[in-house]
Amino acid sequence: MKNKHLNLALFMLISACFSNLTFGQSSAYEDASSPLGAVGMMQMTLHANALIKSKCTGKFPFLAAEIEDNLSKWQENESHNISIAEAKWPGMVNQEPKFLQMIELQEKTLNGILNSFEQMPKETGDQMYLNTCRKRFAELASGIWRRRTPLAYRYLDEMQ
Length: 160
Description:
The chain has 160 residues and is mainly α. It is built from eight helices and no strands.
C-alpha cells in the first residue's frame, strides 16, 4: 500500500510541476498522502530545480544571480526537509528502482516544456521562458509551496 501512495504522490508532483511551467496556473495542487510521498515530492523538486536552473541560466545568463539568490533562500529555509529527503531517497530507490524512472520522465517532460518555448515566435517564446524561470525560483523563495502542499511539508517537518 505504501508503494501505491508513493507512486501516486510522485505522479501528482510531476503533474503539478509541469502545470506550473505551462501557460496556465492550476488552482489545485496535489499534496503528499504519506511521509514517503513527501520525500518523493521533495526529491522531485530538487531534481527539477537543478534542471530548470541549468536551462534558465544557460539561456538567460543575466538571471543567474537572481535565481541563485532565490534558490539559496529556499534551500536555507528548507534545509531540514531537503536533508531528510536526500537521506531517505536512496532507501526508497533501493526498495523500488522505478522511482528513478520517474526522475527521468520528469526530466524529459521538463525539457520538452522548456524547449517548446523555442518553437514559438522568438519574442513571445523568450518572454514566456524568462517569466517561467523567474516565477519558478521566486515562488520557491516565497514559501508559497508550504501553503500549496501543507501535508508534504508537515510530513517532512515531523521527520527525524
